[in-house]
Amino acid sequence: MGCGITSGRQWDLGDIGIPVQVRGVTIQPNGLLTIRPGTVLWFDASRSLFVDREASLIAVGTPERPIVFTATDPTAYWEGIRAILSATVTMNHCEIGYAGRENRYSSVSLLGGWEGGDELPTVNIQNCEIHHSFGSGVEFSFNNYPVTTPPVLRYNRFHDNAQEAVKAIGTPPIDARYNYWGHTSGPSHQRQNPSGQGDRVGDNVLFYPWLREPVTGEVAGEMLIRTGGPTLISPGETVDYAVQYLNMMDQTISGSILVLQLPHAATFLEGTGGAIYWPERHQVFWKLGDLAPNAEGFLTARVRFDWGLPADYTDGTYTIFAAHNYRSDLLNLSEYESYQPTRTQPPQITRLSETELATLRAGNTTLNQMYQQALADGFQYVDAARFTEQDGRVMTHVVLRLPNRRFARVLSVSQDGQVTEMTIGSGQFIVRDTSGGMQVNLTAGEYTFSGGWLAGLTQAAPQAGDCSAERCFANCMFNKHTLLEVAKKAGSVVTTWWIPGVGWVWTAYEVYDTVSDLRRCRTECATAEGRADHCCTPGQVLWRQGTLSGQCAQYRCDAAGNAWKAAPDLIEKCSFGQRCIPGLGAQGGCKDCRDLLSSIRVLTVARRPEAGVCTAADDRCTGLRVRQAKDPNDITGPTGDLLPGQVVTYTIRYENEGEGRAYGVYVVNPCRMSLREHAHLCTWNRSVRCSES
Questions:
Q1: Quick one: 637 exposed, middle or buried, by C-beta within 10 A (0-12, 13-18, 19+)?
Q2: Is the dihedral of CA 572, 577, 581, 587 positive or negative?
Q3: DSSP sequence for 535-581
Q4: Residues 420, 398: contact at Cβ < 8 Å?
Q5: Which helix (H) or strand (E) holds 647?
Q6: What would the pLDDT profile of 209-231 be if each residue is shown by its tens digit?
Q7: Which H or E run contains 314?
């Protein structure tokens, strides 16, 4: 086995029953490798496990089931574990043997402090056996750069290493106390312990007091959170983000919540460990509850990136961990604890024939009027379907579209016959029913209400703090239709309803949630408790993501009406190394990835990105950019006149000459009107549809 880890991976190989032979592993920037107890990795000669900058190796075994890194042939040494710059290495109850090939490598090499001297590995090695190295056991080389997070090296067992068990070059004194050095007399050092019969130690290493016999123990640390994700993506690509958490503290963390802010152009598909997607905030979060000391977990979130991303697109993630007794100021914990997703399973979709639709229209005057008006507005019928939700609710949707495909209109009918109209596309989103409506301008970030929806907002509040059902409803629709969520629905119209073979209209079933949201808002605002949940407090500030990557829009609560203002007070462009985090007040806005560094030293993995993405020192972000695909293509065919009945062949050639895989490739070739009307298309091995434009 040999591989490069570009995202998050977990290896649980302790019970497979066969040796795992490794031909080299590289954990690339942003990468995360977690290894489970009992795993044994056999490395070929001259191979290594390399942890690049911003990457993480988490190997936590148990006393009964340690994690083993050793050589396939004990006489042919492997190169060992090497971590550079801002990498993270966390190891507990491990065995590292027969590494350090050719007297030039150590079993564990931790190197940093060059390229400006701003990056050093974060190291925590405890209860490990490090033995039979052809070089040193553990080597630190920091180029004389000051250490802000001292390495943790405790309760380890060093023996039979050819050179120093611990070697320090260009570092402040390395604290290596409370380790066992292979003999009760301690390590051998020419000046400080000349009678020591254990492994040698280098200068600049603190080793007294030492352990006279192997003993396990634990040094309490911080809450460790590491996020792994890609640095390069392709439009349409599906990738996994992984988060490893480990409570290295000596106390239980109560009521913990872990939040992963997704990249702007990513659509959430699924997650593990009880992942919950909050669409209005474009976040995946986990309710982890109480975490006892040494509690740990590995979580993943699968996303698909949008089609049509520009070549200069850059973005990333932001990870937040908070609990009732740990950085509770970072999140409104009660919001996350009480949040319940509105849908846990896709709906059952049954397509309707035009005859069935005609029957439905005949029995619903409002639907028929809206349908006829859509035709008069230039829309053309596309399809109709009935959605049956998991809770038994049934909605029927009718889709129409302009010939130029810039706008679509959806007419939705509930079980009780209520009709809602949604028009979406080209920077606009409009939803209305017979009582009023709401329009969202995606460019300006403005919300405009009309009819009865507007009248409820303009009525004077009887008293301070009062919230009418009408104000509640407007606020509820405002909160459930963030700019980013609306923009993604518009993108579904442009993409899914344009590309043959992607799944056609009904694949993007999330587009139709707007109608469910409207019904839900009506129901919730009919009660005093629901109105209290949706109306805002005068002076409150709400931050939400804009339609473009890096945008952060700020809205204020209107003191007169207890409702959010229709237009943002400002749309801020987050600076380099920042992410827009949705939320109220200080919990939202453009957040620097290095915020609270002293309290959360290791909250996520970052990388040294291109301009516009997190900087290398950023501690809670991951960054990415688009992988470039290049597709030269041409079409060849007959020239001149064609005879009636003549069979001709057109050939389209394509080739990806870019640096990465191109996902979901499709070919569109406009057909001349004469071909559409009089020609029959025959193909081999591919399906063909004649384009209408």
A1: exposed
A2: negative
A3: SPPTT-EEEEE-SSTTEEEEEEB-TTTSSB-SS-SEEEEPPTTEEEE
A4: no
A5: none
A6: 999 999 999 888 889 999 998 88
A7: strand 314-322
Chain centroid, CA 156 distance in Å: 36
CA angle, 78 then 84 then 86, to 5°: 145
Residue with tokens 């694949």: 507
By CB neighbour count within 10 A (0-12 exposed, 13-18 middle, 19+ buried), where does 410 fall? buried
For the chain, what are the domain ranges? Answer: 3-206, 223-327, 348-595, 628-693
Question: Residue 381 has which token pair?
Answer: 């019928």
Residues near 115 by beta carbon (within 8 Å), at least 6 away in sequence: 85
* Single-letter code of the amino acid located at 247: N
Cβ-contact 216, 155 below 8 angstroms: yes
Contact 70, 102 (CB under 8 A): no
Rounded distance, CA 383 to CA 401, Å? 10
Identify the CATH assignment for 223-327 out of 2.60.120.260, 2.40.10.10, 2.60.40.290, 3.40.50.300: 2.60.40.290
pLDDT digits (tens, 9 = 90+) for 256-295: 999 999 988 888 889 999 999 988 888 999 999 999 999 9
Torsion of CA 504, 508, 512, 516, to 10 degrees: 140
Distance CA 584, CA 540 (A): 7
